[in-house]
Design brief:
Length: 128
């Protein structure tokens, strides 16, 4: 095991909405992703999903019992989407994020809208 530079990890790929697994903590993955534009509405039935914005800005649409709202995460912000909450990430500019979620968690959740061409439905890829 050696330290991993997030800068190097992020420089090693270009595909958007396609997380890379940089390390794991017990049964959780630490993943990084490059994102821009819209993801899709989806729900993780069994797990919360943690976001940290490394660069850029991430918006997350949330459909909650009280209605729909959007949270805005500038660079350096964290947010956890609770399990069972339908959500749709959106990045208005090129953005880099770090995700923390159980190994095997699918990017598009357990229930989701049709997956657009530009979104990778994956449980995360290894770093090259
Ligand atoms: Ni999600």
């Amino acid at each position: 095991m050696e330290p991993i530079s997030l800068t190097t990890a992020l420089a090693s790929f270009t595909q958007q909405w396609s997380p890379r697994i940089v390390t794991s903590v017990n049964d959780y993955d630490v993943r990084v992703a490059k994102v821009e534009g819209e993801h899709l509405w989806h729900t993780h039935h069994h797990t919360d999903e943690f976001f940290l914005v490394l660069t850029g800005e991430l918006h997350i649409g949330l459909r909650e019992p009280a209605g729909e709202r959007t949270v805005v995460l500038p660079k350096g912000s964290v947010f956890t989407v609770p399990r069972g909450t339908e959500h749709k990430p959106y990045a208005p500019v090129p953005t880099e994020i770090l995700l923390f979620e159980p190994t095997g968690t699918l990017t598009v959740g357990d229930r989701h809208d049709p997956v657009p061409e530009h979104v990778d439905a994956t449980t995360g890829h290894s770093l090259a």
